[in-house]
Amino acid sequence: MPLVIPGIQNTAGGDGQDWESKLMGKRLGDSHDEVTFAKSDLPQEHRVIKPDSMSTMDHKPERINIHVDEEGTVKKVVKG
Q: Which of 1, 9, 46, 47 has the fewest C-beta atoms under 10 angstroms from its C-beta?
């Protein structure tokens, strides 16, 4: 099993804080602009969680969980 050192080696999906800084306050859409982030540029292991939606409680270290509000604006980004 390889040794993974946070901040030294990058794992699939990148650091959750990196994604938080890229996504917070933006909407997810088909292309990039000042207020939109392209869905096609998200890591393969991601899920968008809408208010009042159900999601599994399984932990996947490489997955990015993107919480959005009713209008689709990103409010929280959690890795796992």
A: 1
The pTM of the full predicted model, rounded to 2 decimals, is 0.77
Residue written as tokens 């993107």? 66
Helix residue ranges, H only, the chain: 16-23
Architecture of the domain defined by 16-79:
2-Layer Sandwich (3.30)
How confident is the model at residue 14, as a pLDDT? 55
**Are the beta carbons of 41 and 23 closer than 8 angstroms?**
no
Spell out the residues 6+ positions from residue 50 whose beta carbon is closer than 8 angstroms to its own.
Answer: 68, 70
Locate the DSSP E strands across the chain.
27-29, 36-38, 46-49, 64-68, 74-79
